[in-house]
Every structure is written in structure tokens, then in C-alpha cells.
């Protein structure tokens, strides 16, 4: 991943390793720690009542990431969404899609069910617009500029 990130984004190998890869590992560990802690709570109430809250996944999260930190942004977008039980449709920047595509192969190899993480490379006016306007996408997370 370090080599791919350095070559794809034109970064120093040391930067890709020390900063980008380190941030990704910390984010994955942090979000993995939350995966079994996001749940509802019972609320004490007087009388013969039982009250509780429930946390439910949003559904399909469309995510559009920029070119300057492709691996970090990929992880920052998918890790919280997945730990909360959502599915992801992610569009990497057209300038730096290699890391996201490789992560897709690792996700498949790890045994994620088909359709949980979907990577849609393409240009903003076509792929980005399709994600942001699709009626089945319940939330859009966009990092970048217009």
C-alpha cells in the first residue's frame, strides 16, 4: 500500500509510510473498537413503561474522495460507515484511483459480502453526479472542491 500510495499520488515513500499508512491503521483500529458499542439504551422512566433508544444504519453511503490523500480518505470514509452497519459506494479521484481499486481487492479477499463496498471510478460530472443524485443513496460524504 505504501508503494502504491507513493507512486499513484507522487508522494515520498517515507511520507506514505509514516503518515498515511499510520493514520489508516489508527483509524481502522479506532472504528473497529466502536463496532460493538454502537447500540441503543434503555431510559429509566416512572410508571409501568419501558423506554429505549435504537441506533440504526443509515443505509447506502455515497462517498467522494479527493486526490491528495487517496488511501487516508478512503479509510476515513469507509471505516466509520461500515462499523455503523452501512454499505458504501465510493468514488476515488480520477487522478489517483489505484489505491482505492487495490483496497477493493483486499476487501473482497477479506470476505466482505458482495455489494457492501462498491468502488466506482470515474469523472466527477458522471460518476460523482450519479452517486450524489441516485435515489437509493441515503447519505453523501464529499471531501474536495468543485
Automatic annotation (TrEMBL):
Keyword RNA-binding belongs to the record: no
Gene3D superfamilies for this protein: Aldehyde Dehydrogenase, Chain A, domain 1
One Pfam family named in its UniProt record: Aldedh
Reactions catalysed, as given in the entry: all-trans-retinal + NAD(+) + H2O = all-trans-retinoate + NADH + 2 H(+)
Superkingdom of source: Eukaryota
InterPro entries in UniProt: Ald_DH/histidinol_DH, Ald_DH_N, Aldehyde_DH_dom
UniProt keyword list: Lipid metabolism, Oxidoreductase
The protein's Enzyme Commission number: 1.2.1.36
Pathway stated in the Swiss-Prot or TrEMBL entry: Cofactor metabolism; retinol metabolism
TM annotation in the entry: none
Domain Aldehyde dehydrogenase residues, every copy: 2-146
GO molecular function, one term: retinal dehydrogenase (NAD+) activity
GO biological process, one term: lipid metabolic process
PANTHER family linked to this entry: ALDEHYDE DEHYDROGENASE-RELATED
Protein name (database record): retinal dehydrogenase
Native source organism of the sequence: Eurystomus gularis
Gene encoding the protein: Aldh1a1_1
Amino acid at each position: 500500500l505504501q508503494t502504491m500510495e507513493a507512486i499513484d499520488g507522487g508522494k515520498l515513500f517515507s511520507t506514505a509510510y509514516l503518515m498515511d499508512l499510520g493514520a489508516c491503521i489508527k483509524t481502522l483500529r479506532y472504528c473497529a473498537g466502536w463496532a460493538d458499542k454502537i447500540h441503543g439504551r434503555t431510559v429509566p422512566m416512572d410508571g409501568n413503561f419501558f423506554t429505549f433508544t435504537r441506533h440504526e444504519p443509515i443505509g447506502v453511503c455515497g462517498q467522494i474522495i479527493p486526490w491528495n490523500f487517496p488511501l487516508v480518505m478512503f479509510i476515513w470514509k469507509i471505516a466509520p460507515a461500515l462499523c455503523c452497519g452501512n454499505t458504501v459506494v465510493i468514488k476515488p479521484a480520477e487522478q489517483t484511483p489505484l489505491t482505492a481499486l487495490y483496497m477493493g481487492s483486499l476487501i473482497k479477499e477479506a470476505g466482505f459480502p458482495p455489494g457492501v463496498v462498491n468502488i466506482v471510478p470515474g469523472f466527477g460530472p458522471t460518476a460523482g453526479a450519479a452517486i450524489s443524485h441516485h435515489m437509493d443513496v441515503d447519505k453523501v460524504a464529499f471531501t474536495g472542491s468543485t
